[in-house]
From TrEMBL:
NCBIfam families: glyco_like_cofC. It holds the Pfam family DUF2064. Gene3D superfamilies: Spore Coat Polysaccharide Biosynthesis Protein SpsA, Chain A. InterPro entries: Nucleotide-diphossugar_trans (IPR029044), Trfase_1_rSAM/seldom-assoc (IPR018641). This is TIGR04282 family arsenosugar biosynthesis glycosyltransferase. Coiled coil: none annotated.
Length: 202
């Protein structure tokens, strides 16, 4: 993969009471923090070997001494605003810096694999947009070859409407698109499987 490809990772600093708040409402903030740390480690494992540039965007300040190696991941802070405004700004900056194939992921998907991310870049060779739908109605990945601001505007974030509304915009704009496998995000207690609970000692 050429150096014109960039992977954006949107994360939060793992602070007690500030991550996985929907999950914490059921299992408590301590367990929610452990779950989030597990998700971060998984996301690093999935992404660190990919032959693309990688940029971690933080909410709440950049931590140079965390699990993301500084020689592999560039680090920046997200702008203020809703999720759509923050993603749009990250994509806009990437294209201004000369990248021509940009993909963004979060850190909520234990089913994400390096192969799926590689496939996203492959799909962008022949499509305008690639989306990885989440089973809750959102998406765990979106990628594009140039900025389409409409895909990040007027969305009901953190609802089951995000993916269908985004896909409707893609079709209305007559963009070519590819869909990746539908995967599950970890946002609620019912999203925790037995293997993950075992890994956490729960």
């Amino acid at each position: 993969m050429a150096k014109n490809k960039l992977l954006l990772l949107f994360v939060r600093n793992p602070e007690l009471g500030k991550v996985k708040t929907r999950l914490a409402a059921t299992v408590g903030p301590e367990v929610a923090l452990e779950v989030y740390l597990h998700l971060l480690r998984h996301t690093r494992q999935v992404t660190e070997g990919l032959p693309v540039d990688k940029l971690v965007y933080y909410v709440g300040g950049v931590n140079k001494d965390d699990i993301w190696p500084n020689d592999i991941y560039e680090k920046r802070e997200q702008i203020s605003g809703d999720l759509g405004q923050r993603m749009q700004a990250a994509f806009a900056a990437a294209f201004l810096e000369g990248y021509t194939s940009v993909v963004i992921i979060g850190s909520d998907c234990l089913q994400l694999t390096p192969e799926i991310i590689r496939r996203a870049y492959q799909e962008l060779e022949t499509h305008d947009v690639v989306i990885g739908p989440a089973l809750d109605g959102g998406y765990y990945l979106i990628g594009m070859n140039c900025l389409y601001p409409q895909l990040f505007q007027d969305k009901r974030w953190s609802t089951e409407h995000v993916f269908p509304d985004t896909l409707e915009d893609v079709k209305r704009m007559r963009l070519s698109y590819a869909l990746l496998p539908s995967l599950s995000d970890v946002d609620h207690a019912e999203d925790l499987d037995e293997e993950m609970l075992g890994n956490l000692g729960l």
